[in-house]
Amino acid sequence: MQIVLLSGGAGKRLWPLSNDLYSKQFLRLLRREDGMYEAMIQRVFRQVQSIAPHLPVTVAAGHEQVSLIRRQLGSAVNISVEPCRRDTFPAIALVSAYLHEVQGVPLDEAVAICPADPYVDEDYFCAVLRLLEEAEREGSANLVLMGIEPTYPSEKYGYIIPASQETQSMVRSFKEKPDKQAAENYIAQGALWNSGVFAFKLGYALDKARELLNYTGYEELFGRYEELSKISFDYAVVEKEENIAVQRYGGTWLDIGTWNTLAEVMPEHSIGRVTMDETCNNVHVVNTLSMPVLCMGLKDVVVAASPEGILVSDKQRSSAMKPYAERLHTPVMYTEKSWGEFRIIDAETESLTIKITLSAGRSLTYHMHERRDETWTVIEGRGWVKLDGNEFAVAEGQTVRIPRGSFHTIRAETLLKVMEIQTGEDIDVDDKIVWRSC
């Protein structure tokens, strides 16, 4: 049996903390029992390991997320890399081909597809295991879904109408996201929220890929992935499948897609340098900046501050922020990488100042730039710089100038913090050539 975590997200629903590289499942906002903060994807992975420590986990993600996934989850997960975003059906087809052809998973093995970022208890993954067991059972339905027992008439989710009220039932029909009155009618019929969690035998997904995508092999599918139409697995497969069952789940399940829902699971009202006076009520503040935030006389408000912007919103209204955030076109100012993290301090037309933090033992790729010069100043720690084949030690207070056209890297002996200043008339993130040894 296998679990696949779908890691999507455009990064605007929890702006200004989330961005195109650092989408919501990677934000370290949930406090663990030991007091440390973890991201949603880390929490989900930890829960899977607790319930089923020997169950293989694969993350399906865009290439831009690979370094971040390695940073947060380590090498314990497999990663099926998507060359670009093409919605859930192409992603599931590609990860299914990856499991079979790259990982050697048999066609009759059960696979569960789960989002990477729900807020759930460990019972949720016990339910996922039951889906896998049912999907693997001889004579079972082609698809087994997890349906969430609704707690209110939500307009955010699609609905599953089961044929009966038993723990497991065949599916009668699906309903698109309704208005409140329609949702109330569906719930009166015993409808369940569609959680986006389902299980199938691996061969089933590959058969659908052959039928709908002309799939002939993993490498071929990967090579023409950008040409595939954007289509959801629900629309392409689930809603057209006749032999389909649903299992009911009544435990904790939250889709943390807005600041309002995130506030519901935050154990404290503030993170970072925050002061609130005694008149504030039902206010949550997240501040990732070094400067302080002071709130006075606020009620039912969320405040979030990051290098990419500041949000001040009524909690209910925060669910409508995505189209407004998309208009801002803010550059990515912070993200984590497999080697550490970077934060843009200042951006001018012909200069860029970045604070780079490398974990001990990690290094940047050996690379060069054609259109910009760089200067590295070590502000904390010790390490080694390699510049055009010459390697030398660096420590706090030392500066290295890197002219354009020179291959360079830096390796951390201890935790290493470096201020990087880029200068040039055409500073572009794509101006990078990585050294390829023969």
Could you list some keywords that capture this structure?
438 residues; alpha+beta; Spore Coat Polysaccharide Biosynthesis Protein SpsA, Chain A; Jelly Rolls; 6-stranded antiparallel sheet; 5-stranded mixed barrel; 10 helices; globular
Strand order of the largest sheet: 20-21-22-29-24-27
Largest sheet: 6 strands, antiparallel
The coarse silhouette is: globular
CATH class division of the largest domain: Alpha Beta
Indicate the structural class.
alpha+beta
Kindly report the name of the CATH homologous superfamily of the largest domain.
Answer: Spore Coat Polysaccharide Biosynthesis Protein SpsA, Chain A
Q: Could you tell me the strand content as a percent range?
A: 35-45%
Q: Helical stretch count?
A: 10
Give the number of DSSP strands: 30
Share of residues in helices: 10-25%
In CATH, the topology of the largest domain is named: Spore Coat Polysaccharide Biosynthesis Protein SpsA, Chain A
**Mean pLDDT value:** 90
Distance between the termini: 39 Å
Please mark out the parts with pLDDT under 50 across 5 or more consecutive residues, or reply none: none
**Cα radius of gyration in angstroms:** 24 Å
- Tell me the domain tally: 3
Overall CATH architecture of the largest domain: Alpha-Beta Complex
